């Protein structure tokens, strides 16, 4: 058996460095090939040489502005007295988009719009963001245009820069809190390996962004020239200036004032309906669910970078050393890091569930490796959390969804507690003194004739041992274990102990 293990280990170790390098390269390829990772801070992470970037001249700017002016105001706030098809209200739903604009925020917006449509409520999107990913922002813009209820963008606290400005310009009604700013929509090329970035002015990237702003901003009555300057010259406006420039509709101190200003407004939606907003000042805040929170946290650039680095290194060294628990933990961290870098959360959920099931199965047949079972349970829990069970295409009710989630959490906690108990017992057993020393003083029987100082076999507690005799022992004699030397038990005849005990008593 030892020879087979040695041959197997020797053969595999030749290929371990190559295998580890291949896994690391695959991980890096997934990071850089994911669409989410290719668009940082409203710009595609595209390798563009500095010599190829040309600062747009006056002719280019004027040309883009003229194209944008061709989009007439069709949607947004209409003049008083405009006929309307239906009334939306009196309820308003409020969501808050903070931090990086990512796929999690996109899902959050989509869920909230569906909820607002089902309740015939106005949706207020509070924005406090420095920007984010252009693909997520673009999808959010399109989602707003397809909404069957008015979507109001409201910049609060600090800012709605970059991707946040794109989203604000696409809302049916745009509002700002005094002291907030918007602008700087020019994309950047971001290098995750060095943390550096440079502005991107390639027309293949700039023009689609300008077109998006014009298509979804100018048609709401936003100033075409200001929209183009947002992208080409990174203009920034405060609330008062933004209202003067004609890129927002309202300035409101708080939610209460915003609701009062919205009441009675007639809004034409891109879907072709004209609606009247009727609100009595009541609203409900929609908090993101657990899946959205986890995805948004993982999308933090610092956290995803740390998870990728630790996961890749742990996987690399664990494969090289043949450490199965390290491979499991490294793979788990790597998948989480990939999700934060833009890898599909749906695919990641499937990987985590399958991988977690395999690890739990391995744990059942390899007691003592608590980290394998713990990692497997964590992967199962995260896999279920990341499943899009509330998205379109899943014909399940909310009650069923909640029951499934609670069942999964309960199972995870139970299995985690069981694994922790097993690990505790294993550690306790390993730290305990060796039970072998309890054989000292045990009584057995000699299997062979063993001369003084010689060796032979004895039977002690149902097991055969090779023993050294300190007194002559005949086959069948009762013996007593007095010590252990390496693989040998040190024994003597039991009668001598009895005689000595009798002498002491006399």
TrEMBL record:
A GO BP entry is:
proteolysis
The protein's location, in the record's own words, is:
Membrane
- Organism this protein belongs to: Aeropyrum camini SY1 = JCM 12091
Keyword terms, alphabetized: Hydrolase, Membrane, Protease, Transmembrane, Transmembrane helix
Which stretches are transmembrane?
A: 301-319, 349-366, 371-389, 409-427
GO molecular function (one): peptidase activity
Name the domain of life.
Archaea
Question: Cross-referenced CDD domains, in alphabetical order?
Answer: Clp_protease_NfeD_1
Principal localisation: membrane
Q: What is the lineage of its organism?
A: Archaea, Thermoproteota, Thermoprotei, Desulfurococcales, Desulfurococcaceae
NfeD integral membrane domain location: 303-425
What is the name of this protein? Serine protease
Query: How does this chain sit within the bilayer?
Result: Multi-pass membrane protein
Q: Which residues form the NfeD-like C-terminal domain?
A: 439-493
Q: Where is the NfeD1b N-terminal domain?
A: 93-189
Listed under GO cellular component are: membrane
